[in-house]
Amino acid sequence: MAADVDKKEDDSKHSQQNGHQSPSYGSWICRGIWTLLIVGAVPLLAFWIKYYQDAQLLKRHEESVRTLGAEGLFLFSSLDTDHDLYLSPEEFKPIAEKLTGITPPVDFEEEVTHDPNGETLTLEAKMQPLRLDSMTKSKDGFLGVSHSSLSGLRSWKSPAVPSSSFSASQFRAFLPPKNKVAVGDTWWVIPSELNIFTGYLPNNRYHPPSPKGKEVLIHSLLSMFHPRPFIKSRFAPQGAVACIRASNDFYFDIVFRIHAEFQLNDVPDFPFWFTPGKFTGNIVLSKDASHVRHFHLYVPNDRSLNVDMEWLYGASESSNMEVDIGYLPQLELQSTGPSTPSIIMDEEGNIIDSRDGGGEPIQFVFEDIHWTSEMSRQEATRRLEVTFYPFQKVSYLPFSEAFDRAAAENKLVHSILLWGALDDQSC
Q: Taking the mean position of all CA atoms in its chain, how far away is CA 274?
């Protein structure tokens, strides 16, 4: 038996010395080759699938252009939000509403359950339309301007909803998160989703997406001005930021800033984007959002140009876009007074007074608010600016003061000349 084993070992050594490999070694080589082929084939297969999909998409695009024409395809694309070249019933709804004139009630997603017996706040909207003579470039027949291009702008002369009532609890959207309750703290009410890497949102849109969560209140407020507000602007920074200006045991005074825009045109006209430099204001509300003492939202008018306007005059976004800026004298919402309850109950839950449509309003006397901690409105506004634009951490000085500071600190002067403003959306 031992002799047989020795003989097999000698035969194996002899085989290896003559350059022959064992069968298991050969099968390992075969498996390795097949693995390499499979690994190499995967990206090649993915390339051909992508090539085929792109070719099919191009073919469908060419067929669409032949069928609809360039402008028809543009309108189709503005409705085709998922870019699958098919219109779902939801995507076709704006056209159906346009053709029938019937707009069903919108069921927005709310994050606040309203108390039917809670307090209500009445807001009034005021507006002075854009001064057309402040548009420095745009006249009829010049620079892609036609009567239809500016039709939405020219017809927007007053608020869509002059007065509206809101539940005080809706303004809970402005309350700070639990870790941001100190004076001077800032937070994102509506976070920005755009940056230099994500680019910007498309221009060929007419109807804003349905708002969700805290966007619902902002959408409702801005809808008092115009029926088509876009809460998330096309360009960064988008969203809304708030800062606690003052606080005591029961109330916050919160300063806020919102970057949003309006779509003034509707089909068949090409889109016209109206982008105020910013919306800002403040709200004084109880920490449980059951009572709103004061609310004010407005577009600042202290600069000679405070609105950016961009519109298309053809189906191509890249080559048929025109831009101008102008001056908007007034666009603001103001509370008519503190929020008030519709009924007053005694300690046993019995109604002792109520407010109805035909009776006299309930008379209330509100106590003065004394702040235990506060900062200036100017400082709170600066913190909002730094949150939106980090470059605002640097001190910017008027031209006449810059050279004195430079001489005192032995530094150079960096001068910036702008047509518009660098720290808002009007430029």
A: 14
